[in-house]
Amino acid sequence: MSLAWLALIAAPLLAADPAPPPVQGYEDELVQWGLAQHGHPVEPEPEGKRLEAVLVASEDVVAPSDPYPMLLNVFHVRTREGVIRREVLLEPGAVWSSELALETARNLRKLGIFAVVRVVPVRGSTPDTVSLLIVTKDLWSLRLNQDIQLVGSLVQSLRLQGTEQNFLGLNKKVAVDFLLRRDSVSLGQTYLDPRLGGSRWSLNESAALIFGREGSGLEGSKGSVLVNRPFFSLETPWSFQTQVVWRVQPVRVFRGADVWELPYPEGGTVPYIYDARELGGNALYLRSWGSRFKLDAGGGIGAYHRRYGAPASSGLDEARRTWFRETHLPRSEDATYVLGYARFWETRYEVMRDVDSYALSEDFQVGPYATATARYAPALLASSGNFAELGLTARYRVRLGDALSSVAAAASIRRLLGGEGQGTWVNRRWAAEVQQVSPKVLGGRFVVRGLLDVNIDDLNERVLLLGGGNGLRGALPEAYPGKRMLLVNVEYRTPPLILYTVHLGGVLFYDTGSAFDRRPGFVHSVGVGVRLLFPQFNTFPFRFDFGYVLNDDRPDFGGRFSFSGGQVTEFRPGFLDAPI
């Protein structure tokens, strides 16, 4: 959502007379509306009864109870009823199943086109029957999506995506993408069809051209094509996916507003700029077993080509080029590999509210969740990498009353089987995250997150940068570099003040963290923030924070502010989910 949209949405709120907060929640009011649409009362005991019918009550983006002009509905095509019914896992004539009803709701929410999805058992025409009522409310789909990372006056990144999220109400996404970074501008397009031709197959493709901001013209391109048949329900026996990805562009590593100048051992500096050329593809087939506890396992093949080097225009001599390549650049490598994958998890979910997204339902898988990925790359060609590697992830999440506790960890390791370094262990990395969401305290919640990320013998020479809006709020952007990172965030998120369905909340926070190579040196900051949710338009809140560093250098007053979408706990290593 753009800043212009924020102003447009806020205008009628400021002009309207304030009203007392509603007695019922935002979703509960829509359920009552849906029940009135069909004239069926709630069935309190649906188990064991035969399903008579599936009923759909689909509300427009702007309902009569919303504070926005109904004229906006003219510019939005409401989701077709057939799109909703296609996701229903219960068949008329079958015995009612609460598990399938809840899974239907989860699948509909995953589509990303609804602000609200609720499933309700209602009474049928006879005492031994029940009907399923599905209540939905569309998200605004014709939009200028915005994702901004702003620290003070420094725009770290700005994405503007002109999107029709739900083209003609058919659950197809078409978008034109603009991405501004500190060194480049990219222009691209995206097309997503999650039900290709009405089937269970999906197509997701994107491509973009990359232009330099310093007048260097076209610098590269990137894109991907993914064809996938997912596990669309817990009873689906198999899945398959195949994809191709590419990226050709210069990479510039920034600290603050400037490119990082690396100190050269013989004197002077080397700018942290390199050219990247990457091309890869893979295919993966999985089978699934079990009901409450699931095992998904299978295998596939893949290949990639990766080259990294200092730009020809950098002016570096051979000695500096060699030092730069050996100490700071990712490993240039070609590989063809076979892979095996397994996932074990419990098919149990909890629906909570006021965790990350205020009044909207949030689905959390609880119980164990673990994955293992193994890859073997034989030396098929003289230039091919020859290695074996393993990646593991594990998570356990439990809900106790109205509290939610999560522990997650990941690890990876590679064994070089040929070439330089044969017989050595490399790419040793592990990470752990602990998160606690408290029960309601004075109507709000405490949220505590601890994160540790450790790299050892990393062939890709990853550097973690901490500071600004990425977890250590109030600090200078990317002020603290290192191969390892330790971060703790503590927040108290107030209950929202509801102004004509708009949810406005506050945050008090304490951050402490360190990016380091050997010993951590902790920096501490405290601050306040605001969270703003427009449920008709987004399922995540906007975040505006002001931080104050307690024990290190502080930016000027304006540099202590940060703005972005989502909660700070969403800044986490992708490694925790996909270690290789």
Walk me through what this model shows:
It is globular and about 85 Å long. Helices cover 9% and strands 51% of the residues. The strands form 5 sheets. It has a 20-stranded antiparallel beta barrel. The protein is built from 5 helices and 31 strands. The two termini are 33 Å apart. The chain is mainly beta and 580 residues long. Strand 7 and strand 8 form a beta hairpin.
Question: What can be said about this structure in brief?
Answer:
This protein has 580 residues and is mainly beta. Helices cover 9% and strands 51% of the residues.
Features of this protein?
20-stranded antiparallel β-barrel; three-stranded mixed beta sheet; 580 residues; mainly beta; disordered N terminus; 5 helices; 9% helix
From the N-terminal CA to the C-terminal CA, the straight-line distance is 33 Å
Instruction: Supply the number of helical segments.
Output: 5
Number of strands: 31
So what's the overall shape?
globular
Question: What would the average pLDDT be, to the nearest integer?
Answer: 89
The radius of gyration is: 26 Å
Largest sheet entry: 20 strands, antiparallel, barrel
- Helix- and strand-based class? mainly beta
Helix content: under 10%
**What percent of residues are in strands?**
over 45%
Low-pLDDT stretches are: 1-23
